[in-house]
């Protein structure tokens, strides 16, 4: 592992195009996963960084800064297919701040020279902010070994850019499945998605991984987001197999072993939560006490629930999305 003061990370995995969700925000999906599990990713791929990072402070996603470095006329930067990029600022225990570049490339062996792209981003960041990134790439087994570092020689001048690689093909399936690190289950799913050629293989992998997820003692929110990732990355399309998997998943959900919230309901939950926060802040500021804020948040959720009921959304869905008791939601009908 390199010793520079800042780090960059690149995540490359398979594409994910569902017939039912053809307008799915793939970049946003990966960003959601990284936002929740970036510490788990660092623990797996950058243990030295994980050890030195300040766990009491959250990393900050630097969306504006990254848009600035992409303000270039190079067409390849803007037209490369299926990729997402993020920059994070990670607080360290010694008071420093480390910049992390996450390059998420949603494809296999195509898409140009990954190492050259990583080198290009490094140069852009340094030119704009004088920050020296160190790369981490999560590489699919479709990539060639020569893509794992950048090297260029020109009339005696040489550039060699070696970055950390987490290569899916090099990871042990048994270790990933037995691990208590949430990101390892996601990496295992990405690896399985690469190997699955038939729908029955996807079904088998997805059922196995969902079963493993159900056994973990992770938080409700972590299980919810990991389950969404498993289903999206495996992209099971066979209707009959999909029905069998849904029955299996729903049974685990009824037993309280996993939390299943469909993608649309997940956005609904965020809307309800945000509405509650906004209402709570307004009332809390008016009353000047924390109790007023809490009451306002609760009232905001109830008001949103009433509006959703009026528009035909079922009480069960609203309760699950808003985190309200279903009995309370049903009582709002009257």
How would you portray this structure in words?
This protein has helices spanning 26-45, 47-52, 63-69, 75-79, 114-129, 173-178, 182-195, 199-215, 220-234, 239-254, 263-287, 290-310, 315-322, 326-331, and strands at 8-13, 60-61, 83-91, 97-106, 135-139, 149-154, 157-162, 164-167. It has 334 residues and is an alpha/beta fold. The strands form two sheets. Strands 2-3-4-1-5-8 form a six-stranded mixed beta sheet, sandwiched between helices. It is globular. The termini are far apart. Mean pLDDT is 76; it is low at 1-7, 12-25 and 78-82.
Helix amount, in percent? 40-55%
Shape: globular
Order of helices and strands: EHHEHHEEHEEEEHHHHHHHHH
Number of helices: 14
* End-to-end gap: 62 Å
Pick out the low-confidence regions. 1-7, 12-25, 78-82
Spatial strand sequence of the major β-sheet: 2-3-4-1-5-8
Task: Quickly give the structural class.
Answer: alpha/beta
Largest sheet: 6 strands, mixed
Q: What integer is the average pLDDT?
A: 76
């Amino acid at each position: 592992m390199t010793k520079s003061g800042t780090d960059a990370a690149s995540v490359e995995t398979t594409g994910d195009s569902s017939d039912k969700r053809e307008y799915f925000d793939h970049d946003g999906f990966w960003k959601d996963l990284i936002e929740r599990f970036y510490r788990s990713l660092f623990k797996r791929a950058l243990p030295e960084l994980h050890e030195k990072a300040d766990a009491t402070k959250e990393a900050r996603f630097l969306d504006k800064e990254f848009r600035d470095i992409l303000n270039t006329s190079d067409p390849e930067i803007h037209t490369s297919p299926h990729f997402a990029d993020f920059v994070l600022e990670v607080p360290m225990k010694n008071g420093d701040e480390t910049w992390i570049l996450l390059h998420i490339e949603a494809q296999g062996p195509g898409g140009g020279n990954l190492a050259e792209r990583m080198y290009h981003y490094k140069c852009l960041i340094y030119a704009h902010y004088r920050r020296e990134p160190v790369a981490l790439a999560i590489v699919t087994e479709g990539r060639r070994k020569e893509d794992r570092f950048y090297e260029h020689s020109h009339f005696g001048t040489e550039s060699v850019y070696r970055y950390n690689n987490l290569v899916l093909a090099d990871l042990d399936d048994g270790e990933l499945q037995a691990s208590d690190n949430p990101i390892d289950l996601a990496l295992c799913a990405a690896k399985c998605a690469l190997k699955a050629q038939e729908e029955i293989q996807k079904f088998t992998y997805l059922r196995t991984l969902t079963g493993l997820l159900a056994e973990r003692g992770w938080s409700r929110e972590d299980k919810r987001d990991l389950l969404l990732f498993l289903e999206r990355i495996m992209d099971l399309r066979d209707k009959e197999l999909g029905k069998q998997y849904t029955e299996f998943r729903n049974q685990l959900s009824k037993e309280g072993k996993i939390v299943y919230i469909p993608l649309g309901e997940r956005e609904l939950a965020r809307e309800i939560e945000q509405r509650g926060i906004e209402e709570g802040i307004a009332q809390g500021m008016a009353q000047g006490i924390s109790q007023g804020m809490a009451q306002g948040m609760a009232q905001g959720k109830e008001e949103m629930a009433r509006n959703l009921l009026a528009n035909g959304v079922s009480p069960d869905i609203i309760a699950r999305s808003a985190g309200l008791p279903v009995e309370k939601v049903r009582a709002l009908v009257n």
